[in-house]
Specification:
Blueprint (H helix, E strand, L loop, with lengths): L7 H18 L1 H24 L7 H8 L4
C-alpha cells in the first residue's frame, strides 16, 4: 500500500488550518497564555528598572499594596 505524501505547501496549509482551528476552539486558553506572557514582560521590565534603585523596606511596600484604589 502506498503511503500518502505531503509536499511542503500542503503541509503548511494543513498546519495553518490546524492552528487556526485550535485558536478558535480554545480561545480562552490562548487569551490566558497571552495575558501571562504580558504579565511576565511587565515583571521583567519592572525588575530591570528597579535593579539600580535604592532599597525599600518591607513595611513601605506593604503600605503601598494595602492602599485602597
Amino acid at each position: 500500500m502506498a503511503k500518502p505524501s505531503l509536499n511542503e505547501d500542503r503541509l503548511k496549509d494543513v498546519m495553518k488550518a490546524t492552528i487556526l482551528e485550535i485558536f478558535q476552539e480554545r480561545r480562552e486558553l490562548f487569551q490566558e497564555l497571552i495575558i501571562e506572557a504580558l504579565e511576565d514582560l511587565a515583571m521583567i521590565k519592572a525588575i530591570d528598572e528597579g535593579k539600580d534603585s535604592e532599597p525599600v523596606s518591607r513595611e513601605t511596600i506593604f503600605a503601598i499594596l494595602e492602599q485602597p484604589e
